[in-house]
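Listing S7. Sequence submitted for prediction.
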Amino acid sequence: MGRVENRHRYRNNGVFVNAAGGTGKSFVLNLLLDTVRSQGEIALAVASSGIAATVLSGGRTAHNMFKIPLMEYDETKSCSVKKNTEMARLLQQTQLIVWDEVVMANRNMLAALDITLRDIMDNDEFMGGKVFVCAGDFRQILPVIRNGGKTEELAYCIKSSYMWDGLAKLELTENVRLKKGDEKNTKFAKQLLALGTRDVGELFFEKGFGIRANSREELVFKVYNDLEDNHLNLSYFEKRSIVSPTNDDVGCVNQLIYDLNKEKEVVYYSVDTPSDQDTDVQASVFNAMTSPSLPLHDLRLKVGCVIMVMRNICPPRVCNGTRLMVTNLKKHVVVGKILGGSYRGEQVLIPRVVLESQDTPVPFKRKQFPVKLSYAMTINKSQGQTFERCGLLLDSVQCFAHGQLYVACSRVTSWDALCTTRAGVR
């Protein structure tokens, strides 16, 4: 706040807040945002993932807010914000920028914002002289690099950026979830921190390390108990989820839980067309293609099912990663209520949109509702959420990326709230 009120007194205007799970990071960031806004100033809130953005007051994804282009990993571009535009004027008047889960962000994204703000503000100060507060936890997941390993992840994280040395380092250390005298939860917090800082190797869960499930069906039953009586209960789904490292396992579990819903099913079929009009490929070929970045060609939904939005529809209310419970299925819109975040319980309408494939053999466009089932989600997608009951599915694949196991276990506040299918992971 001292930097916001008189930034010229400080040598730098950038701050990194290192905060482990449960230390009140979201509370602190929202308090900063609300304080600056209450003074009549502009404060922008962004996060590296859509779900993490919903936790911040007025939060949006960084790509959406700053028009950050999709970049190859060996290049740096500026954001798609031109001078003398409404967005440029908004950035000029902004006093504070908050970026949560910055550890997940590619360093080139931060560099693109730095270049753009220096250009818009016509100076050579870091972030154009704006007070920049970023927060994260290096025990969690690092930037995802396609076909890359740990070396590449480290090379593109914020610590490898030119701006790291110029950031003032602050830290939150006290776990605010714990109650005095609660030895069980105190032990959980200590074990969780040890899990996030341990060396690479095989880990076997100790006795009491979560509730054991012997099959996927049992895992579903333990996480979504009383599902039949609560299939239209917003609060019930808001605080429950199952996480897994891979999209394939997530898809299988989502289908398993979806089949337990006894409501009438509605099927929506997409319209697929080639990106290149000269491509001579039949529509049926595109219909059969699937991708993690695209909804299914034959999208099957029921009232009461939980879905995740795959594109920014009307940020900050509905971002890429926002979870909804379906309340009505119309011919041209899907009606749902928001699960969690600042806009919890609000009704939203999801229209069909045109999405372009990013990782299919032949590029094509798909017009479909940009949603997918979300009773379960990948560990990467879950970062930034807290659940009262969470399942960890590791029966077919182990955690394979830095921080995945730590992120999965830190979605809950005690071992009693975590259900797992595996006794040991690497």
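Caption to Listing S7: primary sequence and predicted structure tokens for the chain studied. The chain has a mean pLDDT of 87. The two ends are 42 Å apart (CA to CA).
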